[in-house]
Amino acid sequence: MTQPVIVKICGLSSSETLLAAIGAGVDLAGFVFFEKSPRHVDLETARTLGLLARGRISKVALTVNADDDALDDIVDALAPDYLQLHGDETPARVAQLKARFGLPVIKAVGVATAADVEAARVYEGVADVILFDAKPAPNAAVPGGAGVSFDWDLLRGVTARRWMLSGGLDPDNVAEAIRGAGARAVDVSSGVERERGVKDAEKIRAFVKAARLS
């Protein structure tokens, strides 16, 4: 029997939307720790949301080239189940953080061409999950959450044991994306928002329903 598609909602920042994600049966709740992002949460908010999520949904701490001190504070506040590295972290840095925190790591990789997918193979032996996201524009302020997609067919040859599709997904296209990429795990942020940085409970429910029916 085919396992249901794993769904991650990234950029949750309020109790209301976190509870909506839990109620919709979302598997992973992503919290962004990057001040340039409209979805950034401070440590106090993270602590509150982490307690609300504990035992109900897996928590993911998303960072961008964060140093060890910042990560120490984030892990202390959120008590995440996963670290998500969305910057220029090398395979060596991924391995270092896995050893430091004893947590599985999701490594995000920007994709625009087949060469980008091939380049991601350097993380296969160290990252627990590779997240394929649309490559941001060279002048972009943040590395994700821009609502931009890429050619999903590029992922047909992915060899990583565990990987996730992201980039421009929403309730209307997620089923097509899953079929096109052959994905068994998806990640969404802006595609379930009512305005930039603010999640919409109904869109979260619609996204989960569409993903699980694909």
Count of individual beta strands? 10
**The named CATH superfamily:** Aldolase class I
Secondary-structure arrangement, i.e. CATH architecture: Alpha-Beta Barrel
Rough outline: globular
Uncertain regions spanning at least 5 consecutive residues: none
Q: What share of the residues does DSSP label as strand, in percent?
A: 15-25%
Task: Please indicate the count of domains.
Answer: 1
Helix content: 25-40%
Radius of gyration: 16 Å
The CATH class designation is Alpha Beta
CATH topology: TIM Barrel
Order of helices and strands: EHEHEHEHEHEEHEEEH
Structural class: alpha/beta
Output the strand order for the largest sheet: 7-6-5-4-3-2-1-8
Put simply, the count of helices is 7
For the sheet with most strands, the description reads: 8 strands, parallel
The separation of the N and C termini measures: 14 Å
Average pLDDT metric: 93
Description:
- This protein has 214 residues and is an alpha/beta fold.
- It has a single domain, classed as TIM Barrel.
- It has seven helices and ten strands.
- The protein has an eight-stranded parallel beta sheet with strand order 7-6-5-4-3-2-1-8.
- A hairpin with a 2-residue loop joins strand 9 and strand 10 (198-199).
Keywords:
TIM Barrel; 214 residues; two-stranded antiparallel ribbon; alpha/beta
Please render the helix and strand layout as text.
Layout: E1 6-9, H1 15-23, E2 28-33, H2 43-53, E3 58-63, H3 68-78, E4 82-85, H4 91-101, E5 105-111, H5 114-119, E6 129-134, E7 163-165, H6 174-181, E8 185-188, E9 193-195, E10 198-199, H7 201-213
Parallel strand pairs: 1-2, 1-8, 2-3, 3-4, 4-5, 5-6, 6-7
Antiparallel strand pairs: 9-10
Helix pairs in contact: 1-2, 1-7, 2-3
